[in-house]
Amino acid sequence: MTTEELKKRTKKFSIEIIKFTETLPTNRAANIICNQILRSATSIGANYRAACRARSRADFISKITIVEEEADETLFWLELLVESGIARSYDKINNLIHEADQLVAIFVSSGKTAKSNNPKSTLRNPKLTSQNQK
Question: Which residues touch 82 (CB under 8 Å, ≥6 apart)?
């Protein structure tokens, strides 16, 4: 998946979350969770765009970690909506949960790849450290 495709995918996900939250009931718990999920879900795309404009590998790693955290937080809020019984549209929320889960996996993988390509990260790799000591 290209950078541009992932930018579009994260934006589409944000829009789907916005539309979904508009269908939820308006009570205290739902309002609080909606505010949280709107912040975290829309942050995924915004922070991914920032990561794409990173000035260094370390900057990219830092920013992509934030994207990963926001995607995982969004997944948490979606699960909470289901488990609390607030969300009634199970097909829609299950699709959102699936997409959030895929986004988490993509960004975890991206972060791991970036870290493995970082020369400084080899110091934390026990196999490489033990080989260097021989």
Answer: 90, 93, 97
